[in-house]
Amino acid sequence: MPNLPITIPPQYVPQVQETATFKRPNKPAFEGRMHRMQQIMRDEFEKLPLITEVIAPTGTGKSYAFAFPCLKYAGDKYNKKCGLIILPTNTLIDELHGEFSAMFPDLNIVKATGKSLDEADKKGSKQRWEALEEMASQADLMITNPDILNYAMLGGYDENIQRLMKRYTGNPRFKMSGGKTYWHFLHNFDYIIYDEFHLYDEEQLASIMLMLELRQAIVHESARFFFVTATPEEQVATFLQEREYDFISIEKCLQADKSSGNLAKTFTRLQEEIVDSPDNARCIHGSLEVDFTVNTNISEVLNDKIEEIAEQKEKRIKVLIIFNALYDLQRQSDYLRHSLPDHIIHEVSGYEDQGHHEADVILSTSKAEVGANFGVDYCIMQAGFNWRSFLQRFGRTARGEMSGKIIVSLTKKEKPIFNKLSKAFADQNICPYYDFAQIIKNSFARPDYYAQKVSPFMGQFLFALSNKMMNTHEFTSRTYFKKVIEDLPMPDLQKAQYKYFSLINSKVNELSNARNHDWNTWWQAYLNTYLSFRGSSVNVQVKDLELDAKLITYSKEWVLQNKAIIDVENKGEEGKEILVVDGLREEQDKDLLFETDTIPFARAQHNRFFKRKEKYEPEKLFKRALKEIQKNETIGPNARKEEELIDSLKGISKYFSTKRLNIIGVQGSDGESVIF
Q1: Could you tell me which residue ranges the Helicase ATP-binding domain spans (predicted)?
Q2: Does residue 461 contact residue 210 with C-beta atoms inside 8 Å?
Q3: What is each CA distance from 357 to 24, 344, 345, 400, in whole angstroms?
Q4: In this structure, how many other beta carbons lie within 10 angstroms of the beta carbon of residue 475?
Q5: What SS3 state is found at 308?
Q6: Within a 10 A sphere around the Cβ of 28, how many other Cβ atoms?
Q7: Which of 141, 318, 404, 606 is the most buried (most CB within 10 A)?
């Protein structure tokens, strides 16, 4: 196997002279010097602009900084600061909530996830929304996920509450006419933090920015927003400048006076520096020995390194193996357990999380990229899906002062990456971290990210939001929100998409009034996709015999494609099937069939069905659907209107993504493993 060895010296982050008391779960508190971000969040918070992009490598203690504004003004009712922290996974929410609750017992720290609301017996939209409002009004720090915020902003709770009130009171607008709104909910918070910000794509950034700008327009008293990441996307700054946000250097911000009220459209970047010297600095990563290899597949690497993996236990060193695919993880799990009978091997993935604390060897997937601190100093990792994915995985190893080793497995298809790396490192085998990271960025394919798409998506989200509000809120609220939209500064791209969706809506309504309900059914389902922050998936309950018949809820698509299904039981939640599985299929099922309700299907019901290979070409799928409808000629007084609508819909195709593809059913090629 071709290989390329590189050594990265220890990484240090400078510390300022100011100190703080740091509390840790199950450990004594200590007085220590702060990092720059921590000191600014505590002492200079009110000098920061509307948006601060925080670049902080893993291990820099940025989580501590999230609480400092609350801590500084705790007990001061006139200057009290309350924060909202948004994390991408519920696992991270549970971890941070547990840590903060132990570290800061004097603060009221609450978490809001679907699971936590269920555990509090808050069932149904009315109870859930009231619980969220109550938590927000009482919390010093609230930790939640972006899904709940997006669903609330787009009116998901309102629509269900309206349906409930209509059923039991006869007044469909009972809750909305006198109840608190989403914007009152956000008014509780003085600062809003999006951690792991690099995970959000253009559509998700559109939702976040729409929330920010509508809050500015409606609440008038600004909250400060923080976009926190270890791997920044430069196009975010480009996008903000295109929307006429002015960039101000962090140095200039700190020279300004404190500010409050309605903040100007400005942003800054606060970046923690990595240095090579331990002087006035704290070590966040020890020396790293990195070895890039090219091989046929990950099993070749594991077979080659199995003795080296076994030796780590004798050194009391944990091993982390990161796979690109869950299928490969579970396939190699059997080999590793057979080869390492004296090792505790745990899977930590979205399918099964066996925990990492007691494990000698941890098997993980992209789940390891987000916030995980496994305490490992030896890692074998596949390279990931782009440079950000690579660097997030890379940061899991040798945290603190420990040295470590990372073996990067590149497939033969990734040989061009290896060649670029070999050329870039030709004159050096010792490389400082920032230089290493830049070479990685230049060598790996960049993730698709187009700043110019965000504003159009904001226009679409804005229409979906306003359309829901017009159907659920009373007259005064509707009139007020119309005025907000009229006065909202919008770039031409955003305004054009808002007007475009309004045009489609009017054309669909004309056809619906003529009793062509297929178009209205499709359009309402399409608009409802904006309620989902991540897109849709069909989940299924699985009884996994390899895990002692443990019940797991996971993607039905993945289970049908990869798991050996031996039985179907009708004992699941709400009478749904439980798929009994035992190991992996001998061959993956790549001929799955899907059903959706967000592809136009009037006069072409077969448009609702498509194959797996078509799922990842949504633009082509949408265009094909329109052509299929046009093949079936319509007659009657609505024919012209329908043709006009179809012509108008062609503009949707370039924005039609997998997030707009609402999956309502999936079937294996044997046709036996699913109920639509």
Answers
A1: 43-250
A2: yes
A3: 17, 10, 11, 17
A4: 9
A5: helix
A6: 7
A7: 141
Query: What is the chain's length?
Result: 676
Regions of the chain where pLDDT drops below 50:
168-169, 172-179, 673-676
pLDDT at 572: 54
Give 217-239 pLDDT, tens digit per residue: 999 889 999 999 988 888 899 99
- Tokens 């903040």: give the residue: 263
Confidence at residue 176, expressed as pLDDT on a 0 to 100 scale: 46
Question: pLDDT value at position 166?
Answer: 55
User: Which residue segments constitute the domains of the chain, with CATH numbers given?
Assistant: 42-271 (3.40.50.300), 286-443 (3.40.50.300), 451-534+599-660 (no CATH)
Looking up tokens 């389902």 gives 525
Check residue 98 and give its pLDDT.
92
What are the φ and ψ backbone dihedral angles of 246, each rounded to 5 degrees?
A: -85, 135
User: Residue 144: beta bridge partners?
Assistant: 86, 112
Q: What tokens appear for 339 in the block?
A: 């080869």
Contacts for 159 with CB less than 8 Å, ≥ 6 apart:
125, 468, 471, 472
Report DSSP state, residue 245: P
d(CA 349, CA 555): 13
What is the DSSP pairing of strand 404-411 with strand 539-544? unpaired
Question: Would the CA dihedral through 507, 616, 370, 232 be positive or negative?
Answer: negative
Q: What is the DSSP string of 455-504?
A: HHHHHHHHHHHHHHHHHHS-HHHHHHHHHHHHHS---HHHHHHHHHHHHH
Q: Starting from the edge strand earliest in sequence, which strands make up the sheet with 11-24, in order?
A: 27-35, 11-24, 281-285
Helix (H, G, I), strand (E, B), or coil: what is residue 616? coil
H/E stretch holding 539: strand 539-544
Let me know: does 473 contact 172? Beta carbons within 8 Å: no
Contacts of residue 226, Cβ cutoff 8 Å, sequence gap at least 6? 51, 52, 53, 54, 191, 192, 193, 194
C-alpha closest to that of 388 among 587, 523, 258, 230: 230
Residue 434, pLDDT score: 86
CA–CA gap between residue 211 and residue 147 (Å, rounded) = 13
**Neighbouring-strand partners of residue 265:** none
